[in-house]
Specification:
Multihaem_cyt_sf, two-stranded antiparallel ribbon, Cyt_c-like_dom_sf, 11 helices, binds heme C, electron transfer activity, metal-binding, flat, Cytochrome Bc1 Complex, Chain D, domain 2, heme binding, mainly alpha
């Protein structure tokens, strides 16, 4: 008799457990979907407030009848689907310059004119996870070991260098300065870029597209991302990669930012012509092959005799 009661109780518990899990699942699913829908509802409300029905009733009614839908841009060229605009609804809309994020107009409308959203999406410049429709999923903040972090503000120019090789033409000052530092500090003694330089360290020609899983984060505290690795490695190569022959250079944070932007821009993508910026007829990419004899690269600068 007691056994039967126990069995019934167990069964009840199991049923309750399942019900709870199901309920939780539904809530999570709902909330995941809610996020972008709420922003779209807010966008619609704000837009209707800014519009005048008398002036253009058919347009007004169309907006008023707008149903929430996932907005996306598919770009075959670099195999991306970007849904960022599902929340960033006002990104191209000049009426939203004073709205709060994510509805606010892009801070550089000119930039979006040169790189139209429907042709470029967002992640080619910003990184992040294009397919996601949640704030966390899109990777606004660095998630441990996540391969697609959003590019921090300070390193945005690295993305311009994906396509633009004439840094002067677009005023990419960080890339210009990073390239100069690379030359001044004789990095080419150990590293190759496009076939120029030494072979003691890894070839950096395609560093931008090197998979983050190839980096060891064993000796790094805090958040893990490739960008953080690069910055910390420049601050102290031996700490991040014990036994590395690369020494710690005397660089301030700004210089580290320049150099990091530069190395993170290096890639060998062959984009179609429509995505390749035109360059002036006389443009020649500056050389970075100021090579020092190997022996001098290893000696520290203090005990080194002037070679002039
Ligand atoms: C679920 C809605 C949502 C999606 C999807 C989304 N965002 Fe955002 N985004 C936000 C919100 C909300 C903020 C403002 C958060 C804040 O104030 O910190 C924001 C802020 C930003 C900022 C400003 C910097 C910052 O972190 O504060 C950038 C840049 C950005 N988003 C880019 C993107 C890109 C690129 C994508 C696509 C990969 C994307 N967002 C997808 C909601 C979204
Ligand atoms: C051609 C490159 C490029 C593209 C494409 C691009 N952005 Fe940006 N975006 C930038 C740059 C550069 C900044 C400025 C970063 C800074 O603050 O220094 C920026 C800034 C932002 C900000 C910060 C606004 C603020 O007020 O802090 C948001 C949000 C944003 N972009 C969203 C987007 C979204 C969403 C898309 C796609 C619809 C997109 N961007 C497409 C280059 C781009
Ligand atoms: C996916 C490749 C790509 C990326 C990434 C990219 N651009 Fe461009 N950009 C282009 C192409 C293609 C053009 C078209 C104009 C041309 O043919 O020169 C262009 C045009 C421009 C122009 C207008 C130049 C002119 O001569 O009319 C500026 C300025 C510019 N980009 C700046 C930037 C900046 C700043 C960034 C980074 C925030 C950036 N671009 C990122 C491909 C790119
Ligand atoms: C004495 C040789 C030497 C010099 C000089 C040198 N490096 Fe390195 N570098 C290495 C070696 C070896 C590694 C691989 C071990 C490690 O992670 O430190 C490396 C790693 C790197 C990495 C990570 C590459 C990857 O694919 O993991 C970058 C980026 C880098 N170096 C950039 C630079 C820059 C920029 C300079 C100039 C400021 C420089 N290096 C100077 C030898 C050198």
């Amino acid at each position: 008799m007691e056994k039967a009661v126990l069995r019934k109780l167990t069964l009840l518990c199991v049923i309750c457990g399942f019900a709870a899990i199901a309920l939780l699942g539904v809530t999570a699913f709902r909330d995941g979907k809610r996020e972008w829908k709420d922003y779209q509802a807010e966008y619609k409300e704000l837009l209707l407030k800014k519009m005048n029905r008398e002036r253009n009733p058919s347009f007004y009614d169309r907006i008023a009848g707008m149903e929430p839908e996932v907005k996306q841009v598919v770009i075959d060229e670099w195999k991306t689907t970007d849904r960022c605009m599902s929340c960033h609804m006002g990104i191209e809309d000049p009426l939203f310059t004073d709205a709060a994020l994510p509805l606010r107009t892009h801070p550089y409308p000119e930039l979006l004119k040169n790189h139209p959203v429907e042709k470029y999406g967002c992640t080619i410049c910003h990184g992040g996870q294009g397919l996601a429709t949640t704030y966390d999923g899109a990777s606004h903040r660095t998630i441990a070991n996540w391969p697609f972090p959003m590019v921090p503000k300070e390193l945005m120019q690295s993305r311009c260098g994906y396509c633009h090789k004439d840094f002067e033409a677009i005023g990419a000052n960080k890339l210009i300065k990073g390239r100069e530092l690379y030359k001044e500090m004789h990095c080419a003694g150990c590293h190759q870029i496009d076939g120029q330089g030494g072979a003691i360290g890894p070839d950096l020609s395609n560093f931008a597209d090197k998979d983050p899983s190839n980096f060891s984060f064993e000796n790094l505290e805090g958040k893990h991302s490739k960008q953080i690795w690069v910055i910390e490695h420049f601050k102290d190569p031996q700490k991040v990669s014990p036994g590395s022959p690369m020494r710690t250079y005397a660089m301030n944070n700004q210089q580290i930012e320049w150099l990091s932007s530069y190395v993170l821009s290096l890639n060998q993508r062959n984009l179609q012509r429509q995505y390749t910026p035109k360059v002036k007829a006389d443009f020649v990419a500056p050389k970075v092959d100021v090579t020092l004899p190997e022996a001098e690269l290893y000696s520290s600068s203090e005990d080194e005799e002037s070679s002039e």
